[in-house]
Structures are given as C-alpha cells and as structure tokens.
C-alpha cells in the first residue's frame, strides 16, 4: 500500500512560488506527460480531432479553389494557403485554450491538478505541445488539397521550413488564448475569443492581403502577432526579403504573452488555491 508523507502533502499544497525548484529535466518530463494525457483526452472525442482536420481544408475548398483568378496564380494561391494555415493555427490556439481553460477552471478536476507539485510552466508547455501538435497536423490536408487543386508551389524544404515557422509564430496566439481562459469565466471567454479572432485575422492580413490596406492600417497591423506570423511563414515558403519587425515582433509578442500567462497562473493560484 502506498503511503504519502505529511511533508510531501504539505509541499504539494504550497503555491508555485513556495515550492522547491524543479530541475529542467524533470520539467521537460512532466511537460511531456501533461501533453500526452491532453492528447489522449482529445483523441477520445474523435469529432474534436475531425473538426480540427476538416475546417482549414473546407475553408480552402469554399473560399480559394472556386476563385480561379487566385487559385491559378502560383503567387496568390500559395499566399492564400499560407493565410489559411496561419488562421487555422490562430483559431485553434484561441478557441482551444481560451474556452477550454475557462471551462476547466469551473470543474473539480482543475483544482486537483493545481495541487500537484509542478510549476505553472509545466502546464503551459504541456498544453502548447498537445494543442500545437493537433494544429500542425490539421495543416497537412490543407497543403495536399492546395497542391492538387490550385497552382500553389513550393519545394519540400520550404514547406518543412514553413511548418517550423508556423509552429514558432503560432505561440503568441496560444499564449493569448491561455490568458483569456485564465482571465474570464467560460461564457465571457467565448465572446472575447470571437472578437479577438476577428480582429487578429483581419488585421493580420488573413482575410485581405496587406497590400490592400491603407498606409496607416498597414503600419498599425505590423504590431499584431498574426501579421508577423503571416510574414514569417511567407518568407519561409516563398523566400524573398524579410522585414526586421516580423521576427522581432514575434519574439517580443511571445515573451510578453508568456509572462502574462505565468502571472495569471500565479494570481489564480493565490486567489483560489491558498
């Protein structure tokens, strides 16, 4: 029979900031375990996986393929597919984190997880790995349909680099979704996510290319993580010059939003689990 010492119980109940430091190796291992069980939890509801896989492909079939002026032009078709890929990763991060975290905070299982002796970064990394993996897998049907039904073109090396850039530049959207989920109750989180998704998608040039923006809007939208993600992935897939503000903005956005998520986790810990 397994017994738990009073010292272990006391350590488990301490807030994050009062727990003993956890080694990097242990943090990575706990993050992978957290990601694995998050993936298993999602896979056990197949429609959730199917929805993520089908949505980007359907958007391509309905909005790009019928527009032959776009679909038959290699440059426009490739950029349209990239915009849909960035939109899919962004919406996956905002909805996947923003709503699910807000709902989970209202269920008994989440308070139990918060008592476990693991730092907040473990939960963040586990969620990012699980949701990010599903988001990237959902891009595969989009690429296949784009290759078969449009004139989009790119080498295998550029496509692989595009996936890497998509994973990196999608982090700010995931962190933003987490921040919304940790800040609002579930009903309010739905509305906030919808507004944020529309603003980020339009401002990021995912509905209309930024060349159609007026000068002031083009300048303002360069501060949005979705605009930075679009430019990074286009550079990775199509090559050409990369404006300095895209990689710098992506790094700053990811760092600031990650710090905000950890701060909100710490605040939530202090309010609800002291």
Automatic annotation (TrEMBL):
It is a multi-pass membrane protein. PANTHER family: NODULATION PROTEIN J. Its main location: membrane. Keywords: Antibiotic resistance, Membrane, Transmembrane, Transmembrane helix. InterPro entries: ABC2_TM, ABC_2_transport, Nod_factor_ABC_transporter. GO terms for cellular component: ATP-binding cassette (ABC) transporter complex. The chain crosses the membrane at residues 45-64, 76-99, 120-149, 155-176, 188-208, 244-265. This is ABC transporter permease. GO terms for molecular function: ABC-type transporter activity. The lineage of its organism: Bacteria, Bacillati, Actinomycetota, Actinomycetes, Micrococcales. One of its GO terms (biological process) is response to antibiotic. It is found in: Membrane.
């Amino acid at each position: 029979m397994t017994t738990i010492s009073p010292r272990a119980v006391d350590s488990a109940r301490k807030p994050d900031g009062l727990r003993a430091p956890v080694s990097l190796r242990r943090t990575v291992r706990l993050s992978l375990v957290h990601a694995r069980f998050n993936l298993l939890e999602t896979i056990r509801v197949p429609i959730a996986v199917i929805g993520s896989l089908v949505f980007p492909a359907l958007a391509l079939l309905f909005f790009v393929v019928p527009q032959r002026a776009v679909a038959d032009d290699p440059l426009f078709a490739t950029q349209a597919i990239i915009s849909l890929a960035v939109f899919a990763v962004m919406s996956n991060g905002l909805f996947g984190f923003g709503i699910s975290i807000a709902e989970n905070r209202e269920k008994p299982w989440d308070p139990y997880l918060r008592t476990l002796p693991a730092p907040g970064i473990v939960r963040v990394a586990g969620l990012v790995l699980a949701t990010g993996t599903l988001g990237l897998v959902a891009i595969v049907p989009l690429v296949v349909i784009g290759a078969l039904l449009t004139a989009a073109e790119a080498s295998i090396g550029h496509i692989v680099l595009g996936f890497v850039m998509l994973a990196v530049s999608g982090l700010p959207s995931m962190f933003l979704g987490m921040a919304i989920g940790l800040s609002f109750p579930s009903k309010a989180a739905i509305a906030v996510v919808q507004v944020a998704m529309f603003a980020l998608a339009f401002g990021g040039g995912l509905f209309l290319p930024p060349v159609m923006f007026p000068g002031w809007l083009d300048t303002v939208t360069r501060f949005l993580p979705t605009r930075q993600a679009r430019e990074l992935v286009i550079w990775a897939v199509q090559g050409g010059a990369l404006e300095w503000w895209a990689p710098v903005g992506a790094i700053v956005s990811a760092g600031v939003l990650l710090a905000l998520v950890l701060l909100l986790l710490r605040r939530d810990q202090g309010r609800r689990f002291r």
